[in-house]
Amino acid sequence: MPNLTIPVGGRDFEVVQRKGLKDDDGESVFGLFDSSHDRISICLTKNKTVSEKRATAFHEALHAAFAMSGQSEVLVALCRDADQARAIEESLVIAIENMMWPRAIEVIQRLK
Ligand SMILES: [Zn+2]
User: Across 3-98, where does the E strand assignment appear?
Assistant: First the structure.
């Protein structure tokens, strides 16, 4: 069965699930967004339930939305360095995730 893909801004991001996921600094992470490979990775070690995996996929899809809409680059241009831009993007992604996931998404999907 092919992996699920999440369409964001006209591109399909393949969702890959694997154990022991780490970022470029070697830190264990819940998920990763990789724009150069059109991939969203979900860590099976850290995300124990389907609900946790879905929340992580939504979080990483928001990072994809920031990238695809050019907002990640706007943050890099406005910030003093890439670390500050990443920190602000992470804060915005977490804010949107916590405000919308999962209840707002569930209710919107019931609209007829
Ligand atoms: Zn994040």
Answer: 5-8, 11-18, 31-34, 39-43
* Statement: 5-109 belongs to CATH 1.10.10: yes
CA angle, residues 6, 7, 12, in degrees to nearest 5: 85
In the reported structure, the alpha carbon of residue 60 is separated from the centroid of ligand 1 by a whole-number distance in angstroms of 6
Compute, in angstroms, the gap from residue 22 CA to the centroid of ligand 1.
Answer: 13
Taking only the tens of pLDDT, the chain with its 112 residues reads: 778 999 999 999 999 999 999 999 999 999 999 999 999 999 999 999 999 999 999 999 999 999 999 999 999 999 999 999 999 999 999 999 999 999 999 999 999 9
Predicted model pTM: 0.94
φ and ψ of 64, to 5 deg = -60, -40
